[in-house]
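Board work, copied verbatim: Putative fusion protein
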Amino acid sequence: MPLVTPLSAEHDLETKELAEFFNETLGFCPNSVLTMQRRPAISKAFINLNKAVMANEGRVTSALKRMIAWVSSNATGCRYCQAHAIRAAERYGAEQEQLDNIWEYRTHPAFSEAERAALDFSLAASQVPNAVDETIKSRLYEHWNEGEIVEMLGVISLFGYLNRWNDSMGTSIEEGAVESGNKYLGKHGWETGKHA
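↓ predict structure ↓
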């Protein structure tokens, strides 16, 4: 049972209108947003930040951004966000082989060296204490420019917020996210846990 019950999608019409963004991303409005709207300024600010962070400004694709989100969520243990990130990666065109082998991104041939550098950055930046060091920096700069690194850290930071929000809230996970979680992550032990 969640810490705070999500409100109806009709509760705040401005949030509802902004949340249409998630219908493309996930196919539904997340329960996390429906909970945030108890304070509509938070839900609206969050959605606008999400839209800004996920906008494509360079070579960091929508699919890669969602895989970065998955690595971050996996590092922190948020099962809700793991399922959402893998679902969004699928919906934004991640290759089937990448989705099936996300756990092995460091060695699987479906991932390029540039993608590995980005995903390792996500893992290091999501740890407490933070593990970003000169090696991570050097690998990033071999493949990405500073604007693209800012985009990546935007995703990692956004999911740092979401991981804390949803794991603390025990947000109930939506059916579509459960389906994607089971399909791509279940073979490695993913389950809904407290998000049921």
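The radius of gyration is 16 Å.
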